[in-house]
Amino acid sequence: MLTLLPEEQMLVAALSLAERNNLVSTAPQSIADVQAFGPFYFGMYCADWAGATANLQAQGMVDLHDDQLSLTAPGAARAGELRVAHPRQIYAYNEFYYRARRSAAHARFCERVYGRDLCQHGMADMGQINALVEELKANRAHSILELGCGNGALAAYFADHTGANVTGVDFAEEGIRWAREFAAQRPGRLTFHTADMTTIDFTAASFDTVILVDAAYFVQGLAAFLRRLLTWLRPAGKLYVFYSAWVGNPEQRDQLQSGSTPFAQALNELNMPFEFIDYSAGEAAHWLLKRQVAEEMKSEFEAEGNAWLQHRRWIEAECHRPYVENGNVTRYLYKVGKY
User: How far apart are CA 140 and CA 189, in angstroms?
Assistant: First the structure.
């Protein structure tokens, strides 16, 4: 999933940079700017692009004028196809799990922010996770599906604390490679798939429970996604979704309410009844703590060569600071029944 030829990476970078700068896809751009954008998009997976511009010109994918590059119509079309299959988030999350697996500092960061190191990337601390475990009331006869399972540590936690068989799905190959080590330690109780949760399919009535922990934000067309997902539940099965909402426009504050978040709107579109637990009171504190700990541990991350990882954890908190300061953030655990 991560593998692209240098020429293919350059096409994707040129298209993405043009859009970032509000240019049409075929607009001329500085070759140096496109090359500098590559590491931002592909991170540690960025290839050596030496000779890529000349090869793309020979293929009719780009036009070159002095130090300027512009995508041709076929080049822009191919770049669009490649980017659909290789979005930036795939590279970012793979690098995250690759680095986190080798970082003692990140393990301590998770312990301080979440209460235990499960290589968490969302907002669910152990208080919320343990409350969910109680809600599940699962046992060895149950089958659980976790979508967006990351490195599988949380899926293993569910298996250990409920006895259920757990299946995990994530698009990050590095995460699933790590997850399969948890599975090897629990023969027959954990199964993992490297796949996009929006395109993977399962047989109808395969699971008693489906869980998304801060994973629904990646879905375009939530209602259609949920309609398909709900078919995977057995009779009386339940869907549990941790979901935080943020708004920057005060006129959109109604979207912070439990029945009006984008996720709730998708459920309403399907006429699906739901219940919820409100965790909004602790949401602002979570983001403030995450930012504080990331700042306090900066030198520790840098000492092990993981400034990239520290910056990622810090910037996610910093980006949410305006919402937190204005009180424009809420959080819920949605409980959806199949009827």
Answer: 9
The Cα–Cα gap between 173 and 24 comes to: 33
* Domain spanning 93-337: CATH 3.40.50.720: no
CA end-to-end span of the chain: 37
Average per-residue pLDDT in the chain? 96
Q: Which CATH number fits domain 6-86: 3.30.930.10, 1.10.10.10, 1.10.443.10, 1.10.1740.10?
A: 1.10.10.10
Q: For residue 252, what pLDDT is reported?
A: 84
Q: What's the rounded Cα separation, in Å, for the pair 87 and 198? A: 14
Give the tens place of pLDDT for each residue, 154-191: 999 999 999 999 999 999 999 999 999 999 999 999 99
Looking at residue 74, its amino acid is P
Burial class, 77, CB count within 10 angstroms (exposed 0-12 / middle 13-18 / buried 19+): middle
Angle in degrees, CA 62, 68, 71, rounded to 5: 25
- Going by their DSSP bridges, the two strands 62-65 and 68-71 should be labelled as antiparallel
Separation CA 150–CA 15 (nearest Å): 28
